[in-house]
């Protein structure tokens, strides 16, 4: 397992290594493990006796999400769908339908570059539950996997009686890794609201969402990391103002194969990992799910097309591009209002 590296820093939250509860003079931090990564809940207004119960509710909810749309668990609902060889519509949860709806919407807007059917290519290049390949996959292997990634082979059906996913090719393989954390983050926020908690910051992996205020009545702040090997070097700070934020980067999640750096972001049009010089895309949006979908989409398409799409879709975006030995950044007009010194 390649444990996920964080590209955002939650300011004023100390990331602790154990999975216990912690009280600080800046509120309470709960954290634990899920989906091959870490969840963190930072709360300002929780009663002491409520903490253990809340921690249990959080972990149970995340475990349910994991059992629903993980491709790493052979028994998850999504793995059952991926193994299913027929073409009858298969019932899915409301949560999975939400992710697929948003993924298909962003997929359409990017001309298929953000593609949740990229799973066979993700596995071929060793970023899903499969082992990393020993050698670069050959043209035939890439072409066979790529043939399974056309979004037209997947159909989401929703009506008053429920929601279903249907495929017209038995071997297609849906991969919700890119947006699962965003969904789980929004889901945690809903849990906080149900529990009457109004001042919180929740995160699963690289997706973050906040509401209300942090310590000393201050807004929640998050920092984007510099794209260097030095973790916690700050590129820019933002005030989230109740929004979701997510960063996709190609500089931490990679491995070397036949002398080349292999990124976990796959370009569905080539069937190969991206190799352009856009190294980080951060998106702020109303939900963490949306931010988590767009950041990957922009990273796939590269700097110039990402800028054009961000402007066209009025997205709040911060891009970092490698230029020779240096890095340059580009900030969309919508992102500027979130920046703080
Ligand atoms: P993101 O940029 O958000 O997403 C990158 C991922 O999206 C890639 O790894 C690939 O899977 C997919 N992708 C690549 N290219 C495209 C594209 N063009 N369009 C759409 N998607 C693309 N990891 C483990 O190691 N062990 C686990 O048990 C595990 N369980 C998980 C369970 C769930 C429910 C989910 C959602 C993820 C799980 N993961 C697990 C994966 C892991 O935690 C991260 O989601 C993964 O590393 C990518 O997250 P990211 O934020 O780094 O990258």
From TrEMBL:
Its main location: membrane. Coiled coil: none annotated. Magnesium. Can also use manganese. It is a lipid-anchor. Keywords: Cell inner membrane, Cell membrane, FAD, Flavoprotein, Lipoprotein, Magnesium, Membrane, Metal-binding, Palmitate, Signal, Transferase. It catalyses: L-threonyl-[protein] + FAD = FMN-L-threonyl-[protein] + AMP + H(+). GO terms for molecular function: metal ion binding; transferase activity. Gene3D superfamilies: ApbE-like domains (3.10.520.10). The keyword Cell inner membrane applies. The keyword Lipoprotein applies. Its EC number is 2.7.1.180. It comes from the Bacteria. GO terms for cellular component: plasma membrane. Its cofactor is Mg(2+); Mn(2+). It is found in: Cell inner membrane. Mg(2+) binds at residues 178, 292, 296. Pfam families: ApbE. Flavin transferase that catalyzes the transfer of the FMN moiety of FAD and its covalent binding to the hydroxyl group of a threonine residue in a target flavoprotein such as NqrB and NqrC, two subunits of the NQR complex. PANTHER family: FAD:PROTEIN FMN TRANSFERASE, THIAMINE BIOSYNTHESIS LIPOPROTEIN APBE. Belongs to the ApbE family. This is FAD:protein FMN transferase. It comes from Candidatus Pantoea carbekii. The gene is apbE.
């Amino acid at each position: 397992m390649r444990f996920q590296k964080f590209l955002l820093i939650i300011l004023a939250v100390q990331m602790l290594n154990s999975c216990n509860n912690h009280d600080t003079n800046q509120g309470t931090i709960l954290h634990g493990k899920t989906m091959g990564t870490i969840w963190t809940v930072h709360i300002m207004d929780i009663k002491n006796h409520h903490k253990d119960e809340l921690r249990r509710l959080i972990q149970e909810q995340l475990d349910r999400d994991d059992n629903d749309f993980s491709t790493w668990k052979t028994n998850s609902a999504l793995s059952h769908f991926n193994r299913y060889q027929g073409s009858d519509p298969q019932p899915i949860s409301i949560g999975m339908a939400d992710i697929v709806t948003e993924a298909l919407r962003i997929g359409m807007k990017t001309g298929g570059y953000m593609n949740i059917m990229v799973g066979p290519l993700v596995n071929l290049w060793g970023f899903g539950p499969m082992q990393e390949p020993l050698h670069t996959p050959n043209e035939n292997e890439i072409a066979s996997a790529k043939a399974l990634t056309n979004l037209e082979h997947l159909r989401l059906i929703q009506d008053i009686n429920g929601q279903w996913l249907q495929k017209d090719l038995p071997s297609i393989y849906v991969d919700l890794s890119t947006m699962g954390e965003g969904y789980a983050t929004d889901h945690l926020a809903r849990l906080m609201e149900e529990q009457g908690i109004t001042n919180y910051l929740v995160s699963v992996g690289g997706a973050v969402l906040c509401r209300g205020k942090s310590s000393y009545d201050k807004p929640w702040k998050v920092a984007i990391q510099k794209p260097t090997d030095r973790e916690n070097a700050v590129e820019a700070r933002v005030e989230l103002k109740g929004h979701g934020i997510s960063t996709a980067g190609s500089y931490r999640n990679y491995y070397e194969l036949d002398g080349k750096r292999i990124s976990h972001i796959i370009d569905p049009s080539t069937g190969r990992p991206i190799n352009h010089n856009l190294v980080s895309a951060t998106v702020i949006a109303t939900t963490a799910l949306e931010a988590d979908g767009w950041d990957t989409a922009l990273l796939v398409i590269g700097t110039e097309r990402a800028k054009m799409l961000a402007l066209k879709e009025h997205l709040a975006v911060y891009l970092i591009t490698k230029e020779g030995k240096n890095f340059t950044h580009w900030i969309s007009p919508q992102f500027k209002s979130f920046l703080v010194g």
